[in-house]
């Protein structure tokens, strides 16, 4: 039980990678707070997780919502937060010629502003030591056609992890980011990509398949637990070899 007697907060814990992380953390003895904007989706996820999960409807990019989430978590569990996963994120196709500043900002508000608010509002509630994990992406380091807003937002997340790590290192709070490659989650439903496009993406993965969310969650467990106690300011690639192996 790597997370016995700990409290974890996972934003965007109602689906995909966040839900898999919450499931893994609970199986390792943690109590978890999961958040999302869609109350019904969140309720179903909490039901799956059982009595150790507290669902809180909250927009990760809203200061008021996140303040309320942490207050509610502290009231409910009567303890501090040991693990924080800033996972809530969206992906949108944003071809430069056709994308308004509002559409660009929408991606940044959630993926960057949301991470910032999630971490800032957590500070009074964090235990010492604590582990913060920011969910970035392989996209942080690779240009991708029609995804400039998403790629730039994830590059910002990797950068935030490093600066947060520097700012908190003396207070016992570790901050790392994790960069999945392609994982099999509902995020692709919102992109309007065809099966053929998704297959093309899978074919360029050295391991020739997308990750299952549980495989990303396993790496998150490492970053969450004491096993990674000497790591801070790092970005962990969990991408089936995409960032490290040349396609040639
Ligand atoms: N799947 C991949 O291939 C992949 C690869 C690299 C990185 N990632 C990153 O991994 C993270 C999780 O993605 P996923 O693939 O698991 O996607 P997903 O299945 O669509 O899950 C996204 C989660 O975030 C929540 N969310 C979105 N915007 C939010 C907001 N403003 N406030 C609170 N919650 C919000 C969603 O719930 P509501 O919609 O109800 O709010 C949902 O619970 C994202 O940051 C994504 O960029 C994914």
Automatic annotation (TrEMBL):
InterPro entries: KR_dom (IPR057326), NAD(P)-bd_dom_sf (IPR036291), Sc_DH/Rdtase_CS (IPR020904), SDR_fam (IPR002347), Sec_Metab_Biosynth_SDR (IPR052178). The keyword NADP applies. Residues 6-181 form the Ketoreductase domain. Keywords: NADP, Oxidoreductase. PROSITE patterns: ADH_SHORT. It comes from the Bacteria. One of its GO terms (molecular function) is oxidoreductase activity. It holds the Pfam family adh_short_C2. The keyword DNA repair does not apply. Belongs to the short-chain dehydrogenases/reductases (SDR) family. This is Short-chain dehydrogenase/reductase SDR. It comes from Caballeronia pedi.
